[in-house]
């Protein structure tokens, strides 16, 4: 009986250790999705409109447009308050508001190029 209890204790300890390692591995490798948030909001990035070029996990990559012409600035709008994005969506910044940087997003393109873009949210000026 004593040998069975030692065996059972070893099995329970092994299972707990396995689940603990798996939990910490999953949380450390995918918890931030490449997004680093600032403690305080940063500078205003733009007061223009944006066009969603790709929906990603946690938000949408969008390119800035000024008078209908793309400027080349790409930003990440994060999903706030349950709002979701779709491809080719136009995002217009309302008067009196701006796209304010609240973090950075790092990702790797299909061509294996690492990119870093600002994470923005629509805020008051």
Task: Explain what you see.
The chain is α+β, with helices and mostly antiparallel strands. It starts with a helix and ends with a strand. Helix content is 23%, strand content 46%. Strands 1, 2, 3, 4, 5, 6, 7 and 8 form an eight-stranded mixed beta sheet that branches. The protein has two domains: 1-31; 35-124. The model is unreliable at 27-31 (pLDDT under 50). The radius of gyration is 22 Å and the shape is elongated. The protein has one helix at 2-30; strands spanning 35-37, 44-46, 49-56, 59-66, 69-78, 90-92, 97-108, 114-124. It has one helix and eight strands.
Low-pLDDT regions: 27-31
Count of DSSP-assigned helices: 1
Order of helices and strands: HEEEEEEEE
Q: How is the main sheet built?
A: 8 strands, mixed
Q: Provide the β-strand percentage band.
A: over 45%
The residue-averaged pLDDT reads 85
| Beginning-to-end CA distance, first to last residue | 73 Å
Shape: elongated
> Which bin fits the share of residues in helices?
10-25%
**What Rg, in angstroms, do the CA atoms define?**
22 Å
Number of strands: 8
| Tally of distinct domains | 2
């Amino acid at each position: 009986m004593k040998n069975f209890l030692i065996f059972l204790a070893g099995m329970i300890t092994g299972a707990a250790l396995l689940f603990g390692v798996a939990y910490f591995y999953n949380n450390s490798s995918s918890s931030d999705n490449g997004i680093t948030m600032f403690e305080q909001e940063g500078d205003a990035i733009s007061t223009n409109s944006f066009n969603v070029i790709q929906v990603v996990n946690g938000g949408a990559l969008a390119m800035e447009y000024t008078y209908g012409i793309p400027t080349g600035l790409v930003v990440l709008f994060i999903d706030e308050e349950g709002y979701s994005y779709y491809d080719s969506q136009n995002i217009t910044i309302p008067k009196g508001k701006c796209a304010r940087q609240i973090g950075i997003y790092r990702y790797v393109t299909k061509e294996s190029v690492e990119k870093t873009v600002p994470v923005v949210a629509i805020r008051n000026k």
